[in-house]
Amino acid sequence: MKLSSIIFIWGMLLCSSLNLFAQQTDFKNFETRESTLDERWELTSESSQGTFVVVPYKPIYILPGRWSNRPNKLPTSLNPDNVAKIPNDYNNFEARFQLSIKTKITSGLLFGKGDIWLGFTQTANWQVFNEKLSRPFRELNYEPEVIFNYPLPSDASIFGLKPKMVGLALNHQSNGKSLPYSRSWNRVVFHAAFEYRDLSFTIRPWIRFSEKFDTDDNPQIGNYIGVGDATFVYTHKEQVFSLLVRSNMRLNNRFKGYADFTWSYPIKGNLKAILQVTHGYGETLIDYNYKQTTVGLGVSLIEWL
Prior knowledge:
Elements: H1 3-24, H2 28-31, H3 36-41, E1 54-56, E2 60-68, E3 93-108, H4 109-112, E4 114-126, E5 137-151, E6 162-174, E7 184-196, E8 199-208, H5 222-225, E9 228-236, E10 239-247, E11 257-268, E12 271-281, E13 291-302
Antiparallel strand pairs: 1-3, 2-3, 2-13, 3-4, 4-5, 5-6, 6-7, 7-8, 8-9, 9-10, 10-11, 11-12, 12-13
């Protein structure tokens, strides 16, 4: 099949999926909001949409063109069963897309304010330009979660800084592959979110559920992906600037980290052009102990805002 046909079919499928999702989701709420966190997490009675309503979670985007300075052609792990023996001839250019949704399944917990959500995120890295390897999906990451979220008093403020919510999640992430490419882990992820004028930020430390070494797909993953992350989002005249950073918090020569910067610019309605630049370890699960730099261009419907 020709590359043009593949891209056309891929684009039609994605557009159809996003269109169906848009029809079932009230994107207008996210278009005119002032308090992002209030709207995205339904922290007030005015923003509540009830239970079992599908809404966006993490960014939803398509990057038809994405460059890596050094694609991971021979994934390794400290577990010898998860070490690839034959390198893959991956291209430096590939496509990437992400879909992410959540739905509230119950509310009114813990003094009548806490909510429980189910979340799901899928990220795909597709070697669509690699005809030699029959254009495979290099990596698919699946991330289901059960999230407890608790809103903080709306009038709380410390020198203009407004604490908005706290909570925790049971998080599983895996790539669904068999040995030697299998990668997965389970975590308890805590979160606290704040707003200051046009800036919002969320801090998420986590604790990994321990596994035996001989059954662990990615031993010492925390040494590379880190022990938590922080996401900063700034809006300016409908443009959105976001920065996600994470590290292992080691202030020595064992420091490992990762940064993901995204800039979105409105095109029409909810459609926005985006630039995404990443650097560091753990760009995907298969790359958890591998450092690279990527640059991608594409479009989005939903960012962190």
